[in-house]
Amino acid sequence: MRRKKRADYKFTKKKHSGAGAVAFAFSFVPLALFIYAVTLSYQSGGNAQEKVGCIGVAAILAALLTLRVSIHEARKENVIKNAPVAGAVMSVLMLTGWIAVYVLGWIAA
Fold first, then answer.
1. Measured between alpha carbons, how far is 47 from 10 in angstroms, rounded to an integer?
2. What's the distance, Cα to Cα, between the start and end of the chain in Å?
3. Burial profile 14-51: b = 16 or more Cβ within 10 angstroms, e = fewer
4. Which DSSP letter does residue 8 get?
């Protein structure tokens, strides 16, 4: 008769981080702003530099804010870290994307 593998369970009182979940949700704001900026630039034939620049600054600030909150929440103890870590990863990706847009804009100008 085969022996069953013993599952190693660890029961803790960890809870989901509310602020981490909110930071994860708000980490999609820079992505939405990017889509809006591309749409706005396309509709204006590429002549919306000031508007796209303002949208980019707002998106970078939103990414920095969500990154800060995500890291703060991920460092807490007794918290399930899935949402804060996912929010931090998404924020870093959007931050690097927007910084790349700005650097490419400076190089092309």
1. 58
2. 74
3. eeebebbbbbbebbebbbebbeebeeebeeeeeebeee
4. -
φ, ψ dihedrals at 7, nearest 5°: -80, 135
pTM recorded for the entire structure: 0.79
In order, the DSSP letters of 26-85 are HTTHHHHHHHHHHHHHHHTTT--HHHHHHHHHHHHHHHHHHHHHHHHHHTSSSEE-HHHH
Q: Which of 35, 31, 37 is nearest to 54 (CA)?
A: 37
Compute the distance between CA of residue 24 and CA of residue 62 in angstroms, rounded to an integer: 12
* Structure-block tokens of residue 4: 């069953």
> Which are the contacts of 7, defined by CB distance < 8 A and separation ≥ 6?
none
Write out pLDDT tens, residues 6-64: 666 666 677 777 888 888 899 899 999 999 988 998 898 888 888 888 998 999 999 99
C-alpha span between 107 and 109 (Å, rounded): 6
